[in-house]
Amino acid sequence: MFSCSIKSQIELWNKPDVNLSTLTAVNSENDKGRAFLSFLRANNVQFKTVAKNLTYLIEMQKQQPLRGFRASNSFSTFHHSYHNFEDIITTFSSWCQQYRDVCKLMKIGKTHENRPILAATIEKENSNQKKSVLIECGIHAREWIAPAICMCIFQTLLQNQQNLEHHTFHMVPLLNPDGYAFSWRSQRLWRKNRRVNARNPRCSGVDLNRNFDINFCRVGASKDACSEVYCGPFAFSEPESKALRNFILNTAKPYATFHIHSYGQLIIHPHGYTRRKPPNAKNLNALAKRAVKNIKRNRGRSYKSGQTSSILYLSSGGADDWAFAKAKASLSYTIEGRDNGNYGFMLPQNQILPACTEVWIAISTILSENKNS
Question: Within 13 A of 94's CA, how many CA atoms are on the CB side?
């Protein structure tokens, strides 16, 4: 193993896996960065440079396609670019108001830095018995494509209301506003929220997807506040995780939950904290396989599916596992969207709509196939 003090010069973007490219940010202008690259070459470790200037990619992600463009009611231009927290919240509220006959906006909580956590319920008022579906995005700050996908699906539901005939949808477009805002203004690859950790003020933040009360902090999580997967001082210690918990238990009460992430092109289901299979594993896996098949057929893009602990790694305290085990959702999926590692968290703006289309194919396939089964 290569070992030296390189924390500030080398950053792994995902856990090394034989099935997935491991993206690594390296400062090649620094002695430690150059030493790391020399180590790879000396040990015949194959690698390729996918971006020579990460700073340039970050700035490109922040650019708007039209000069002077700001978030507005325009569906036609919004999905052409990534948007900061203020633009997302303003537009989410505006679109819901525009379609107020089917959309109800609510504030489900506020963050450490006093930002609102918004949600919307989209439903048609009729006598049909509807099943409730939750779609949650933006739990990890650096995964900009996740809230972009949520906004795109939100538009789809508002404009194509035949999707509301059999389901009521509950959307949380950006669960981690503080972390997301911080990733825009300071550290693009920030993952956690922005909790000030009293015992270790040098290290801020909690990984919200390790903060749920399901096998809390037992595996794939850390009690070290400096860790990227710091679980927090106790389960539901964070206002964001508490907000989602309360929204699910008191309002949404979903039979199906979808948790949108990036990257890896995966459709995965519980359990994540154990290799033990859930009672309905056969159905969960069959539905995910059908979604993978439909994405390939319609978009030509290859996704993989399976149980989280088998496809990825063991991890406890996740929102999907909690929704499945504690909130009693019959179906719960994490969808890791584009791509397979060429861009990772830096997915270009021109892939927002294709990424959204693939995720929506997955969600709609799972819901329709489950209804028909």
Answer: 13
Structure tokens at 173: 């477009």
b/e sequence 279-312, b meaning 16+ C-beta within 10 Å: eeeebbbbbbbbbbebbeeeeebebbbbbbbebb
Q: In the chain, how long is the greatest CA-to-CA distance? A: 69
For 103-162, write each residue's pLDDT tens digit: 999 999 999 999 999 999 999 987 567 999 999 999 999 999 999 999 999 999 999 999
- The residues with which 169 forms a beta bridge, in sequence order, are 122, 133
Whether 336 sits among the annotated catalytic residues: the reply is yes
Segments of the chain with pLDDT less than 70: 1-34, 37, 47-76, 127-128, 372-373
- Separation between Cα atoms, residue 94 and residue 79, nearest integer Å: 15
Q: Which of 136, 143, 240, 336 is catalytic?
A: 336
The residue among 293, 327, 321 whose CA lies nearest residue 309 is: 321
Domains of the chain: 10-49 (no CATH), 67-372 (3.40.630.10)
